[in-house]
Design goal:
Layout (H helix, E strand, L loop, with lengths): L4 E12 L13 E6 L8 E6 L3 E7 L2 E2 L1 E4 L8 E6 L12 E6 L7 E4 L11 E4 L18 E12 L3 E4 L2 E7 L6 E12 L6 E4 L2 E6 L2 E5 L1 H10 L3 H12 L8 E4 L8 E2 L4 E4 L12 H8 L7 E3 L6 H18 L2 H22 L17 H4 L3 H17 L2 H15 L2 E3 L1 H11 L4 H5 L3 H5 L16 H5 L3 H6 L2 H12 L6 H11 L7 H4 L7 H9 L6 H10 L3 H13 L4 H11 L5 H10 L8
Parallel strand pairs: 1-11, 17-18, 18-20, 21-22
Antiparallel strand pairs: 1-2, 2-8, 3-7, 4-5, 4-8, 6-7, 9-10, 10-15, 11-14, 12-15, 13-14, 16-17, 19-20
Pathway: Lipid metabolism; leukotriene B4 biosynthesis
EC number: 3.3.2.6
Family: Belongs to the peptidase M1 family.
Length: 599
């Protein structure tokens, strides 16, 4: 079995040029060299690029001819390299590409000092998933190909660089005394979408024997408190699925424009500041990213059409970690919330939309546009269904651990996963053959089986009192409010009374105030849906003061649907668009039917 298609080693020499020019919006690019592509069997090789300025290509020190192919609307431009010599079997070739990124690079967000907590220095972070690495590095930008890498990053000395790799020291830049060079090594093969870099005025705090938390100093102590349970989650995951192979597990809290809750970059998990609730109630996101260290990073989907192999298994493992640390009831409780997220997503996309298939066809589909909770929650529901069929969580976890051990360091497809499932459960083949495989994998809409536990009835909700709500934990209050979103819109008088009794506007936890698919609707969404005009300014404020897609996109959608405020929603988006992450801006623009001409 081919363990992975392996690019032998990539060396990334990166210079972050005069980030201070960002103050004027002149985004000086990265100047980089990439070395180390191994074992070509032909004289030509094609790499993925997007908005890169290629100045030179060399192979084993000899100049190589190159050409850029036709530009695709979202896939970018292929870089076609012609090697200047014949190859023999087993020959190693070092290909060096000298290039610069564009200010339009979709993998990079450059923040001005005003967009940071410290307000004094600029900030840079990358986000390569799913197919954005090609705008930062010419590469084979597919999860099918894995590689190790070594990086040297030169930055102004007042800034700190961190990457999704293990640090390998730092030193003054010998060519410029005003700069520092940071070195990093990633010895475990990874796909391109997991390459990550952050540059800013960063500080760190130890939160465990193999973990630090990084952020601007204004948030670092708060983040250290919030994520203090990281080591216990790591140990629990190791008990479930085996050793953690990545060495370091650090967390960096990014500025508010980061579009996701977290990102599982090896050795350096990204986290949104909206997780800093003050009560550790949202640390489940970290459990999810920790789980990715095995499902997604170590065993990776072979293509984005099989993305559920990453996310479905990760949600399953995340909830098994919660089961070990909390209880089986808590795992079931989280599953109820996930089922509601799936219902919301299917309703949004449409019951017959093929993008709600567990294994969708993504030919000529932008992966960003296809992103949803389907691979997460439909994937989890499927694995939960199989768990029930084969004998319960302990039995099924035996399969999950064995699957990870077999396919570690490789990329797999759904068919390969299914074949191993039948091999592992060879004594239960008759049961597995009865599964509606086509209904689960290739049919849009909700799953063919609802295996999750029953949830509270409407009459149960009616019995809630002020004292009951005050006694609820943050996750419980979140789910209580989420249930209301699945009813008809509440009368305006009811929403006003809830604010009067519960004072929900004062709650800090973003998962309660601003969660949409799951809970953003819960309060502000409930208010806007009830057409409570007094809540509109607060809704606009939250939609623009942070950039997490889970909150910002649905909230803008709901404000746009409030006809009286439709144009204001468009105007507010255009006003704040430049401060948004490129992915967030593109998706919100699509929802608000904003044409490119408005840029």
């Amino acid at each position: 079995m081919e363990k992975y298609r392996h690019v032998d080693n990539i060396l990334i020499i990166t210079t972050i040029n005069n980030m201070k020019m960002l103050i004027k919006g002149l985004l000086n690019p990265l100047a980089c060299s990439v070395l180390g592509i191994k074992g070509y069997s032909t004289l030509q090789r094609t790499l993925d690029t997007k908005d890169l300025q290629i100045s030179k290509v060399a192979a084993n020190g000899q100049e190589a001819k190159f050409a850029l192919g036709a530009k695709h609307s979202f896939n970018g431009t292929p870089l076609e390299i012609s090697l200047p010599f014949e190859l023999s079997r087993g020959q190693h070739v070092i290909v060096e590409v000298t290039y610069e990124t564009s200010p339009r690079a979709s993998a990079l967000q450059w923040l001005t000092p005003a967009q940071t907590a410290g307000k004094k220095h600029p900030y840079l972070f990358s986000q390569c998933q799913a197919t954005h690495c090609r705008s930062m590095i010419p590469c084979q930008d597919t999860p099918m190909v894995k590689h190790t890498y070594y990086a040297q990053v030169s930055v102004p000395k007042e800034l700190v660089a961190v990457m999704g790799a293990v640090g390998d020291g730092q030193e003054p830049d010998p060519q410029d005394s005003s700069r520092t060079i940071y070195r990093f090594r990633q010895a475990v093969p990874i796909p391109s979408y997991l390459i990550a870099i952050v540059v800013g005025v960063l500080e760190s705090r130890d939160i465990g024997p193999r973990s630090k938390v990084w952020s601007e100093k204004e948030l670092v102590d708060q983040a250290a408190y919030e994520f203090a349970e990281t080591e216990s989650m790591l140990k629990t995951a190791e008990d479930l699925v085996g050793p953690y192979v990545w060495g370091q597990y650090d967390i960096v809290v990014l500025p508010p424009s980061f579009p996701y809750g977290g990102m599982e970059n090896p050795c350096l998990t990204y986290a949104t500041p909206t997780l800093l609730a003050g009560d550790r109630s949202l640390s489940g996101v970290i459990a999810h990213e920790i789980a990715h260290s095995w499902t997604g990073n170590l065993v990776t989907t072979k293509s984005w059409e099989h993305f559920w192999l990453n996310e479905g298994h990760t949600v399953y493992l995340e909830r098994m970690i919660a089961r070990a640390l909390e209880s089986e009831q808590y795992r079931q409780f989280k599953a109820i919330g996930g089922w509601k997220e799936l219902q919301d997503t299917v309703n949004l996309f449409g019951q017959s939309n093929p993008l709600t298939n567990l294994v969708p066809s993504l030919k000529e589909v932008d992966t960003d546009a296809a992103f949803s909770f389907v691979p997460y929650e439909k994937g989890f529901a499927f694995l939960y269904h199989l768990e029930e069929l084969v004998g319960g969580p302990e039995v099924f976890m035996g399969f999950v651990k064995s699957y990870i051990q077999l396919y570690a360091y490789s990329s797999v497809s759904t068919e390969e996963w299914k074949n191993y499932l039948f091999t592992y459960f060879k004594d239960k083949v008759d049961i597995l053959k009865k599964v509606d495989w086509d209904g689960w994998m290739n049919t849009p809409g909700m799953p063919p089986v609802h295996s999750l536990p029953s949830q509270a009835k409407e009459e149960d909700l009616a019995s809630f009192s002020d004292a009951d709500v005050k006694a609820l934990s943050s996750p419980q209050l979140t789910e209580f409010l989420a249930l209301l979103l699945h009813q008809n819109p509440l009368p305006l008088s009811h929403v006003k009374r809830m604010q009067e009794v519960y004072n929900l506007n004062s709650i800090k936890n973003c998962e309660i105030r601003f969660r949409v698919e799951m809970i953003l609707w819960v309060w502000l969404h409930l208010c806007v849906r009830a057409r409570w005009e007094e809540a509109v300014p607060l809704a606009f404020q939250m939609a623009t003061e942070q950039g997490r897609l889970k909150y910002t996109r649905p909230l803008f959608r709901e404000l746009y649907n409030f006809e009286k405020y439709r144009q204001e929603a468009v105007n507010m988006f255009l006003q704040h668009r430049a401060a948004m992450h490129p992915v967030t801006a593109a998706l919100v623009a699509r929802d608000l039917k904003v044409e490119q001409s408005h840029k």
